[in-house]
Amino acid sequence: MVFSAQTEQFIAALADSLSLQQFVKISLGNYKGTDEGLRQILVRKVLIKRMPKLALTFRYKTRDIVKNFNEEEGVKLISEYLQSGFKIATLFTTEKDLIFEELNNGKVVIREITASAKEVPAASHDKKKARLIKPDDKSYLTELKITDADGRVFKNAQDKFRQINHYIEILSALIKELPEGTIKKVADMGSGKGYLTFALYDYLHSVLKLDSAVVGVEYRQDMVDLCNAVADKSEFDQLSFVQGTIEDYNAENVNLLIALHACDTATDDAIFKGIKANAELIVVAPCCHKQIRREIEQHKVKNDVSFLTKYGIFLERQAEMVTDGIRALILEYFGYKTKVFEFISDAHTPKNVLVVGVKKSPKSLVGNLWNEEQNVILQKIKASKAYFGIGYHHLEKLLDL
Questions:
Q1: Between the N and C ends of the chain, which has fewer C-beta atoms within 10 Å?
Q2: pTM, rounded to two decimals
Q3: Cα 310 to chain center, whole Å?
């Protein structure tokens, strides 16, 4: 392919900008070639495995395609595209911008204008995700074997660290729905080794700058002792762990109640505690939905989904949905706006459903209209129980509905 003098001039300027570390980007447009749907090519510099590359983004009418080339290959391709359909191209550098244009009469001109960018953009190919919990200078992460003494996340703890941040991202969005300063006391029911409890305390105090007390409730005394020692070493003065069950814990004045992976009716115990405490935010991730499954199996009501629930795996899934669906209805009955969505806890645990209750404004929970809404919800609960042959739901029993 024979290149025009103007194309060679433009390509020489491109090569110089790359060698002198002045290259910002290139845009090729006004395409008149034969590649159907192609409109534009954008070129930027990236680093892949520490090697400089040119990333060419081919913009079509309905899609974008990105291809990476070494600098020599990329420069050669750009020069070829200038001869095969693109009528205009702009080279952006830190010293000047160069515009290559083929006019309607076929004449090619190059214009030089003042540089629109003064700095070379970062060439990193993979942008680091901004995390609410950062590993550096977090002694509790080191004590819990997530990071080493220098704040580097251990290879075998990468999944756990992602889990922690995903959990905090979810809670962060939910907390923002509440009036400022709402979260004064938090109870984490079944806190285990405390990974998520510590991270939540860190987020509340270090990021949101709240003066919140956080309590982890755990039945195993060895876990309680371990977590209290880590909290003391981390100088987390308002974080404590207590030994006990969800059922026995006094949740008075709790604003945010959390129970992740509380087994079977222990999730109902947690929701009950949150409702009785009038908590502004209740977040539970249920598991082991045995109580409702036993009810469905015992009564064997024939309904429109019987052809599915005759199979054990489908019955199990049905029981999970019905259990959590009724939990959501009960939360609505007591004045909560509910959300039910799926989240991933970590690579070693299957997907979980998160049931969330956000307390509605007190003004919306009074008067005849609210009483009518409660009656409608109550009828939905009764109809659901009858349809699936459920004698009682444990949470309903706790609350004397």
A1: N
A2: 0.69
A3: 36
Q: 241-278 burial, b for 16+ CB within 10 Å, e for fewer?
A: beeeebeebebeebbbbbbbbbebbbbbbbbbbbbebe
Q: What is the token pair recorded at 338?
A: 């509910």
HSE on the CB side for 78, CA within 13 Å? 35
Q: What is the pLDDT of residues 178-210, one digit of tens each?
A: 998 899 999 999 999 999 999 999 999 999 999
Q: At what angle do helices 368-388 and 312-333 cross, to 10 degrees?
A: 160
Contact 254, 185 (CB under 8 A): yes
Do the Cβ atoms of 356 and 319 come closer than 8 Å? Answer: no
Give alpha helix (H) positions in 334-367: none
Residues of the chain with CATH 3.40.50.150: 139-398
Residue 121's pLDDT is what? Answer: 83
Confidence of residue 389 (pLDDT cuts 50, 70, 90): very high
Q: How far is CA 149 from CA 18, 180, 227, 313, in A?
A: 40, 35, 18, 46
End-to-end CA gap in the chain = 83
Structure tokens at 255: 């604003």
Is the CB of residue 372 less than 8 Å from the CB of residue 354?
Answer: no
User: Residue 183 CA to chain centroid, in angstroms?
Assistant: 21
Q: Which CATH number fits domain 139-398: 1.20.1440.20, 3.40.50.10140, 3.80.10.10, 3.40.50.150?
A: 3.40.50.150
- What is the chain's alpha carbon radius of gyration, rounded to the nearest angstrom? 30
> Which pair of structure tokens corresponds to residue 364?
């919306």
DSSP 79-105: HHHHTTTEEEEEEEESSEEEEEEE-TT
Please identify which residue in the block is written with the tokens 């949470």. Answer: 395
pLDDT in tens, 145-180: 999 988 889 989 988 898 899 899 999 999 999 998
- What lies within 8 Å, CB to CB, of 58 at 6+ separation is 38, 41, 64, 65, 66, 67
DSSP tag of 22: -
